[in-house]
Amino acid sequence: MKDSAQKRATVYFEPHLHHALRLKAAETDRSISELVNDAVKAALLEDATDIEAFDVREKESDCAFEDVVKDLKRRGKI
Question: What is the dihedral sign for C-alpha 4, 20, 15, 41?
Fold first, then answer.
């Protein structure tokens, strides 16, 4: 993971999390930095997916909860 564009940051972990990270790094033959970078990328990808879903849903029409419940009752679903 030798990339000249990488940035250094100080991150403070709770002791039990740091211990788990050290063990996982040793077990998987990866560095703590690699594990943390992958976790952050996964979290950001999830955020991007959520944002896309919100953008799609934004175009949907709004309906009041009360109207939905009444419609379900009218159609015999509840």
Answer: positive
User: What does the pLDDT look like over 62-76, one tens digit per residue?
Assistant: 889 999 999 999 999
- Burial readout 45-59 (b: 16 or more C-beta within 10 A, e: otherwise): eeeeeeeeeeeeeee
Does residue 23 come out as left (phi exceeding 0), alpha (psi in the -120 to 50 range) or beta? Answer: alpha
Tell me the C-alpha distance between 18 and 24, whole Å.
Answer: 10
Residue 2 clears pLDDT 90, i.e. is over it: no
Per-residue pLDDT at 40 = 97
Would you put residue 62 in left (φ > 0), alpha (ψ -120 to 50) or beta? beta
Give residues with Cβ within 8 angstroms of 36, minimum separation 6. 11, 21
